[in-house]
Amino acid sequence: MGKIEELPIDHVEEVSDSEYSDFESDSDYEDIVEESLLERLQALKEVIPEKQRKAISSFASSIYNAGWTATTFVGKSAWVLTTSALLIVLPLALEIEKEQALLQFENEARMQQQSQQQMLSGQPGQTLPGQMPYGGLVPPGFQPQ
Q: What is the pTM of this model?
């Protein structure tokens, strides 16, 4: 059995708190060769059973495929909606603009005709023969009401 021996106090070395460490010394880390991420993942191959690896692989593959399918669907839907809107809305907008330009032209022509009538007659409110009051035109062959 071992023998216990008491040491005198002058043989005890005092160690400061800064010398204590929860980590191993730096010299221990110098021996470790740095591994790449790929090497670490390959090392996990030995730790994780093949059944679990296949399950993880199929899960990741299904997530990837679902994302690819969703992205493809969203892209194609956006293309269909955009082209449909352009084919339907663009001609409609052009026709509305054309109609507004025609109405503006008719209003300007009516105002010019009214100003010419006032200049010719000299009195506002009188109409020339063949025209209706308030600037309305009567087509040939129709009687004013």
A: 0.40
